[in-house]
Amino acid sequence: xxxxxxxxxxxxxxxxxxxxxxxxxxxxxxxxxxxxxxxxxxxxxxxxxxxxxxxxxxxxxxxxxxxxxxxxxxxxxxxxxxxxxxxxxxxxxxxxxxxxxxxxxxxxxxxxxxxxxxxxxxxxxxxxxxxxxxxxxxxxxxxxxxxxxxxxxxxxxxxxxxxxxxxxxxxxxxxxxxxxxxxxxxxxxxxxxxxxxxxxxxxxxxxxxxxxxxxxxxxxxxxxxxxxxxxxxxxxxxxxxxxxxxxxxxxxxxxxxxxxxxxxxxxxxxxxxxxxxxxxxxxxxxxxxxxxxxxxxxxxxxxxxxxxxxxxxxxxxxxxxxxxxxxxxxxxxxxxxxxxxxxxxxxxxxxxxxxxxxxxxxxxxxxxxxxxxxxxxxxxxxxxxxxxxxxxxxxxxxxxxxxxxxxxxxxxxxx
Length: 415
Hints:
Layout: E1 4-9, H1 15-22, E2 26-32, H2 42-51, E3 56-57, E4 74-78, H3 104-113, E5 120-126, H4 139-150, E6 153-161, E7 172-180, H5 184-190, H6 194-201, H7 203-207, E8 218-221, H8 226-232, E9 245-249, E10 252-256, H9 269-272, H10 289-296, E11 299-304, E12 310-315, E13 346-349, E14 352-355, H11 358-364, H12 379-388, H13 392-414
Parallel strand pairs: 1-2, 1-4, 2-3, 4-5
Antiparallel strand pairs: 5-7, 6-7, 6-9, 8-10, 9-10, 11-12, 13-14
Helix pairs in contact: 1-13, 4-8
């Protein structure tokens, strides 16, 4: 089977591309990266430096005509988590849609307008997508599933914590794959036992095995009218009905709580450290230590709002310094810079306490060393990239399992 042609949206510094290209089964034919409200397009500069400027777009995707995007077999991207509510346009009651600037609708537009729709989608988001917004838990994900079904796709998803499969960072993200109705994989999913698909036969369960479960699945149908679905889904403000694994075909949802099954090698925070070569600027000055200890520590105190209103504030303590015999905590976008912070990683070394280097942050996301090193890009920006990135190993394993599954089902048809 030939390599699958990929379109990478919201490309960042190329995590999806790295993971897919490592399998040797995919070729990126077009990519887009645009950071709103910033003049310097740092992530796009890194992307071009690593992969070349050919077929790379650094324009606002909302303003890129679908005709400019070449046909492709698979569309991938980690799109921003936003409010995905739906409305109708006043001029045309059938016209969808979502608010301007909400980038899910750019994916939706491309899929709607493409005459040759991509056969496969591979998307990623924060795991809270399954339970947002707080007033209608699960509504946003319901809108996505229904709109993908309407466009001819069946969907499977799983929340994956990379560390539970031996990777160096505790990073939970929801990954979802979609298969177009014209593909053998769509038929295979539609005709399968949903529980078997989620526990052993599906693409994600092949890539990331789970234990057999005695827990009862949840099944329900999604309303067909998107505006009505947006207005009424889970309006009684209960828990989200979406569990950490599931499929959705023709508006019917089947969702199940699964537990990871893994007993292989585990990479720890200590395994990614630059031993002895970390820059001196990363070390914490003793005069700053009390501030770090305060921010990382437990608190029960009275605070005041700007308006003078007093309230009781409390939070638990963080492990300080970070445990070296565990995978790391999740990297966030504010990881860079010298200022003391509750959320930045701090490690104990022979030379003293220090923050993590850009290379160590890259390793925690399984990027090549110095992937984000480029003249004119400060270390704080490199840390920001990694706070926004995904764990490359997760993409590689799902990408590999997907290609294998496509080959299998096509062979079965031919025989």
